[in-house]
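User: Quick sanity check before I run a bigger batch. Here is a single chain. Can you write out its predicted 3D structure?
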Amino acid sequence: QVQLVESGGGLVQPGGSLRLSCKASGFTLANVAIGWFRLAPGKEREGVSCISRSDGNTYYTDSVKGRFTISKDNAKNTVYLQMNSLKPEDTAVYYCAARPWRCTLVGANFDSWGQGTQVTVSS
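Assistant: Done. Predicted structure follows.
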């Protein structure tokens, strides 16, 4: 059974950091690209970052470049999103998703999704 489980969300002050985790089961990360997406109230879903299945290339939306870092540990079948210098506009539910093809930041192209983890940036 294919499953993705996110964790690591929470409440953090502006300028703070969080690390999100996306644990995969039922498939191996070597065969899929993993993307992180976020959904904020009143906004459309936004692609945040993606890490490719084979060469580990990474991609980011402009608003998080230089602040967020995506990585993966194949041995643990887990993808991470390190989020630094967090801003209130980063507040959202963050989801990870998988697709057995190239990276993209378009959510409609992903097949499997986790349940999401809430990130709130507020003083």
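The longest strand covers residues 18-25.

User: Great, the batch can go ahead then.
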